[in-house]
């Protein structure tokens, strides 16, 4: 069965600090990988996605993620966070063989201090 | 991008009543939709896969008689929480997709008193 593990439940950073959120998945086949963001009181928004090709994926708002197949990882990065990045971030995976049902990690709550 | 809507956005009901939540794909057709539940400060948990024209597929531990799913058309799936109890209070989210990419609805917040 597919599973997704996010390493940090809570992260607190100061503005301009660099961000890296860890994500590992467990699945033997070909997967599609996603990072979603959920701002307080709002619904999920897609930050970026990886299906195939260049393992370094750039998303919206300056975020990027790197797929490392050998490590089953898809870590999210941003060189310089802003106060407005305060939100909860979810790593997720789906696969054609699973009917594209999406499995989410537990989420990482990021708080950026102004 | 594609848009998925949910109705209502929030609902308060008395214990023992049933509540229906609608999920619509507004600008595309979806043979499959998914229903998730998110408890406060927790992640989204997949409840079931809604299949147009056939029975839904439920995840382990989800009561199919409690959470009735109907996917009557290619743009509409409904989730009915039957005989709701306070422990059913949660944020219910649907998604619909075009292949690999799923588009999520804004969610329905259910409070059962």
Would you write up a description of this structure?
- The complex is a heterodimer of chains A (114) and B (113).
- Chain A is mostly beta strands and 114 residues long.
- Chain A contains no helices and twelve strands.
- In chain A, the strands form three sheets. In chain A, strands 2, 5, 6, 10, 11 and 12 form a six-stranded mixed β-sheet that branches. Chain A has a four-stranded antiparallel β-sheet with strand order 3-9-8-7, with no helix packed on it.
- In chain A, a hairpin with a 4-residue loop joins strand 8 and strand 9.
- In chain A, 38% of the residues are buried.
- Chain B is mostly beta strands.
- Chain B is built from no helices and eleven strands.
- In chain B, strands 2, 4, 5, 6, 9, 10 and 11 form a seven-stranded mixed β-sheet that branches.
- Chains A and B meet through strand 11 of A and strand 4, strand 5, strand 9 and strand 10 of B.
Task: Draw up the topology in text.
The complex is a heterodimer of chains A (114) and B (113).
Chain A: E1 3-6, E2 10-14, E3 19-21, E4 23-26, E5 32-38, E6 45-50, E7 56-58, E8 64-68, E9 73-78, E10 87-94, E11 103-104, E12 108-113
Parallel strand pairs in A: 2-12
Antiparallel strand pairs in A: 1-4, 3-9, 5-6, 5-10, 7-8, 8-9, 10-11, 10-12
Chain B: E1 4-7, E2 10-13, E3 19-25, E4 32-38, E5 44-51, E6 57-58, E7 67-73, E8 76-81, E9 90-98, E10 101-104, E11 108-112
Parallel strand pairs in B: 2-11
Antiparallel strand pairs in B: 1-3, 3-8, 4-5, 4-9, 5-6, 7-8, 9-10, 9-11
């Amino acid at each position: 069965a597919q599973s997704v593990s996010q390493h940090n439940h809570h992260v607190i950073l100061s503005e301009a600090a660099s961000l890296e959120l860890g994500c590992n998945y467990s699945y033997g086949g070909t997967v599609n990988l996603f990072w979603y963001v959920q701002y307080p009181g709002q619904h999920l928004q897609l930050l970026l996605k990886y299906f195939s090709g260049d393992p370094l994926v750039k998303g919206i708002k300056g975020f990027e993620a790197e797929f490392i197949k050998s490590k089953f990882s898809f870590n999210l990065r941003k060189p310089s966070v802003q106060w407005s990045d305060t939100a909860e971030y979810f790593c997720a995976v789906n696969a054609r063989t699973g009917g594209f049902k999406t499995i989410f990690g537990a989420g990482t709550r990021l708080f950026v201090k102004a | 991008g594609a848009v998925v809507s949910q109705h209502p956005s929030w609902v308060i009901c008395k214990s023992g009543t049933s509540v229906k939540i609608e999920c619509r794909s507004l600008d595309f057709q979806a043979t499959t939709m998914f229903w998730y539940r998110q408890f406060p400060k927790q992640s989204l948990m997949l409840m079931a896969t809604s299949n147009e024209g056939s029975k839904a597929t439920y995840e382990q531990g989800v009561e199919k008689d409690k959470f009735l799913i109907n996917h009557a058309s290619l743009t509409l799936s409904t989730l009915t929480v039957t005989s709701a109890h306070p422990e059913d209070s949660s944020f219910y989210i649907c998604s619909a997709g075009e292949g690999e990419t799923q588009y999520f609805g804004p969610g329905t917040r259910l409070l059962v008193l």
